[in-house]
Design a protein that fits this description.
The chain has about 130 residues and is mainly alpha-helical. Helix content is about 85%, strand content about 0%. Helix 1 packs antiparallel against helix 2. Keywords: Cell membrane, Membrane, Transmembrane, Transmembrane helix.
């Protein structure tokens, strides 16, 4: 289920990034679109990294191997790095749009996980009933 949600998330984010690049290129709101592009790109990278770590975590738990962490420090340091880049180039990159882009990415993956969890649970109930 998580693999399906992450695959759908990647597809949605790439479409959204394509639209944002068009907005950046053809409108006068280039700093806002660039901030959104950077935030969503970071959230795409971060969620892919987290999904890989969660899958690895699940495999190691099944094998009774101790797992160190899910990479929170590396994701936080990545967010701090792009915030520093946005602060350095504040005339070209909107910090609020950057933050909004990160939040949008995480919001979409949560919605996808709820959606695919609901579909998966309703399919298993239908299969259990035999109808």
């Amino acid at each position: 289920m998580m693999e399906i949600a992450v695959k759908s998330f990647k597809k949605q984010m790439l479409y959204l990034l394509a639209l944002l690049v068009l907005g950046w290129g053809f409108t006068s709101y280039s700093s806002q679109f660039l901030g959104l592009i950077m935030g969503i790109s970071f959230s795409l990278f971060s969620i892919n990294y987290l999904a890989k770590k969660v899958t690895n975590f699940g495999e190691k738990v099944v094998k009774n191997i101790r797992v160190k962490s899910l990479g929170m420090l590396s994701r936080f340091s990545g967010a701090a790095l792009i915030a520093l880049v946005a602060a350095k180039y504040e005339t070209h990159i909107s910090s609020m749009a950057l933050l909004l882009g990160i939040v949008i990415g995480y919001s979409i993956i949560v919605i996808n996980l709820f959606y695919y969890n609901f579909i998966h649970s309703s399919e298993s109930e239908v299969n259990k009933d035999g109808t």
